Amino acid sequence: MMGKLKVYADRMSQPSRAVIIFCRYNGIDFEEIKVDISKRQQLSPQYAEVNPFQKVPAIVHGSLKLSESHAILVYLASAFPGIADHWYPTDLFKRAKINSVLDWHHSNLRYGTVNYAVNTVLGPATGVPLSPKAAAEAEKVLLSSLSKLEDIWLNGDGPFLLGGLKPSIADLSLVCEIMQLEVLDEKDRSRILSPYKKVLQWIEDTKTATNPHFEEAHNILYKAKSKFEQQRSRVAETGTEPSNKIGGHAKM
Predict the structure, then answer these.
(1) Is the pLDDT of residue 245 over 60?
(2) The dihedral of CA 225, 111, 205, 218: what is its sign?
(3) CA 112 to CA 98: how far, in whole Å?
(4) Alpha carbons 193 and 86: distance in angstroms, whole number
(5) Model confidence at 249: pLDDT above 50
(6) H/E/C letters for each residue in the chain?
(7) Mean pLDDT of the chain
(8) Torsions phi, psi for 158 (to 5 deg)
(9) Which residue intervals define the domain GST C-terminal in the entry (predicted)?
(10) Nearest to 18 by CA among 82, 72, 79
(11) If we measure between CA atoms, which residue out of 33, 35, 31, 75 comes closest to residue 55?
């Protein structure tokens, strides 16, 4: 007996949300264990025994301890019975293509999204000062990545990555990443995303395909978005600096 799957996660983490949505959608029985990054719980000695890299998400399944969200999603899609083939196809060519998207994601879309959000909004909530210079560099990577999504990865017959008719683990991972931009000022978010019509439609298609689990997993992000909006309104009205006590974090 492998025992019940344990998922260590913080839902303000984009990769954590992807793993949770995948489990919920596919009916995988699991225990969600919150690792609160705003309280630095990922740095505790207890969590280091689960993931020595001290990041989320991580899973424990029987004797297996596994970190890195893409590796986790691959494992879940392969280890649990009844998972539809479109998530991580048995066809080796299709599987290799999905792997190529996942590998590309880390140093492109993820790099740009995380560093832009942290250096424009989320940084102070995690003890990192805002850096306009770092934000400008991240924006270049983010916009380049969105262009490649639009022109290459979404240039197929179906609505999902690589022309898929149904979402794969890559769709879920990348859309959860882009959702972190919800914390931005709405004008800034629109400026970044509105030129990419296929990307915007793909986000909506992925939400629709995985609801209600997608929206449920993102509730914490929407609440953080609302708090940041209120904070900006107060600053505009009073000219006072924000308290930066909102518990937002970008994985980590």
Answers:
(1) no
(2) negative
(3) 20
(4) 27
(5) no
(6) CCCCEEEEECCCCHHHHHHHHHHHHCCCCEEEEECCHHHCHHHCHHHHHHCCCCCCCEEEECCEEEECHHHHHHHHHHHCCCCCHHHCCCCHHHHHHHHHHHHHHHHCHHHHHHHHHHHHHHHHHHCCCCCHHHHHHHHHHHHHHHHHHHHHHCCCCCCCHHHCCCCCHHHHHHHHHHHHHHHCCHHHHHHHHCCCHHHHHHHHHHHHHHCCHHHHHHHHHHHHHHHHHHHHHHHHHHCCCCCCCCCCCCCC
(7) 93
(8) -95, 175
(9) 91-228
(10) 72
(11) 35
Instruction: Return d(Cα 71, Cα 57) in angstroms, integer.
Output: 11
100 Cβ contact partners less than 8 Å away, ≥ 6 residues apart: none
- What is the token pair recorded at 145? 């990545």
d(C-alpha 41, C-alpha 30), whole Å: 20
* pTM for this model (two decimals): 0.93
**Cα 158-215-99 angle, rounded to 5 deg:** 45
Model confidence band, residue 242 (pLDDT cutoffs 50, 70, 90)? low
Q: Which amino acid is at 90?
A: T
Q: What is the pLDDT of residue 240?
A: 63
Looking at residues 128-138, what average pLDDT do you find?
94
Residue 213's closest CA among 10, 3, 7, 11?
11
What is d(CA 114, CA 149) in angstroms, rounded to the nearest whole number? 17
* Greatest C-alpha distance within the chain: 60
Residue indicated by tokens 């992925």: 206
| Residue 248 pLDDT | 38
Q: Which residue in this structure is represented by tokens 């924006």? A: 139
